[in-house]
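Researcher: Re-running this chain for the archive, since the previous output was lost when a drive failed. Same request as before.
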Amino acid sequence: LPKPLAVSAEKATSGADDAQWASVEGIVHSVNLDESDSTAALHPSMEVVTDWGTIHVWAFNLPYAWLKSMEDSTVRLHGAFGTIFNRDQQMIGYQMSISRKEDVTVLHGPPVDPAQSQLIPIAQLSRFSSHIDFSHRVRVRGTVTMNSLGRGIYLQDGTGGLQVEIPSEEIRVGDEVEAIGYMTTGSAYAP
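Model: Regenerated structure tokens:
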């Protein structure tokens, strides 16, 4: 195989590296199986967050459990890099296809067992902090103020509120729960 091109923010956003054998580094935020696909066990996918955006990574013939063990790790991937365009030829995202274990290198494992990590007050999420790395999983605790059944729950602590996107049929309003996950910003309701 050719030497992989190092994808940069400038090249990624221009589409110049589309369909090239490339190298990217980022943090694995999720590893998933498409339950509706009969071949899903052979083709898991990952969301890898880089300095310049999120890449949807298709993993062909790589074990799901092996990939799942990399969640919250910093990795280097070699694979076929692609840009995703909408019907108007506007770039809307990135993807990569990988198929060999030797094309995946774990640069740093997860920083800490997330269940043992420091509790973060909800109001501190997204605020500058020299001691919290928001690119990795964070842990919050709060009282459930709403359950939108299938679209997540709303939590509130003494400092603020947030939406947590999880399947939520078993969680009731008034329950105190801990949530561990990746912080993202958006226009969702904040109680």
